[in-house]
Amino acid sequence: MKIATFNVNGINGRLRVLLRWLAEAEPDVVCLQELKAPQDRFPEGAIRNAGYGAIWQGQKSWNGVAILSRGTDPIETRRGLPGDELDSQSRYLEAAVNGVLIGCLYLPNGNPAPGPKFDYKLEWFARLTAHAAVLLTHQLPIALVGDFNVMPTELDVYKPERWMDDALFRPEVRQAFHELVAQGWVDSLRKMHPHERVYTFWDYFRNAWGRNAGLRIDHLLLSPELAKRLDGADVDRWVRGWEKASDHAPAWVRIHD
DNA sequence: ATGCCCTCGCAACGAGGA
Length: 257
Fold this sequence. Notes:
Shape: globular
InterPro entries: AP_endonuc_1 (IPR004808), AP_endonuclease_F1_BS (IPR020847), AP_endonuclease_F1_CS (IPR020848), Endo/exonu/phosph_ase_sf (IPR036691), Endo/exonuclease/phosphatase (IPR005135), ExoIII-like (IPR037493)
Largest sheet: 6 strands, mixed
Helix content: 10-25%
Family: Belongs to the DNA repair enzymes AP/ExoA family.
Number of strands: 14
Number of helices: 7
Organism: Bosea thiooxidans
GO molecular function, one term: metal ion binding
Keywords: Hydrolase, Magnesium, Manganese, Metal-binding
């Protein structure tokens, strides 16, 4: 079973890229972020024609998350994180697929920091961490995957000194990520590539892709029960080089039965 | 210190992204 995450940066503008990648990579489960489409503008027909069932939580212009599953429909278990009834941003969706609980998330960017957007990021992160702790008590195979907007360590940044004051790399955010993982989650990309520079994002600016000036901000965290079955993890980097590419590349894990 | 590039939108001297 292959579980992937892909920040598409606009699902309708990016549909050809998404469909091509689905056909080539054949992931079983896909978490999408940044749909940038309202609920009624999700391209359900094209996704179904590609062989995937889907659930999604759209939002006009920004955010938006979806879970796709090949040959079956995801069974939705949650829409939105608990803890803030007033939060209207579409950033969390959860479903069961073939015996694995999938949490698909798009953590806030948080720039500029400090400021209200950074406060919202930390508050959202705290709610995610609280919910993740509850999930672990079930002792089930669980994957928490998506765009976390955090580079966990200096190995995850092409030039760490340039990012020290950025909301994606500030100490508070790295600490929050560390505390989440310390609950017992396995950072699968790092586990399979302990010393390597593995990036999932390259800015559109400054020829970042051409210079390999990347960041690792998309993560696949596995519960202990699921981590036992981890067979491989990697990034489909070449997708970033396609025409009309997203600024993120898909990242994935392979899980054995 | 800022723009660079890119998306969505109902058109902007824009917002947000990371």
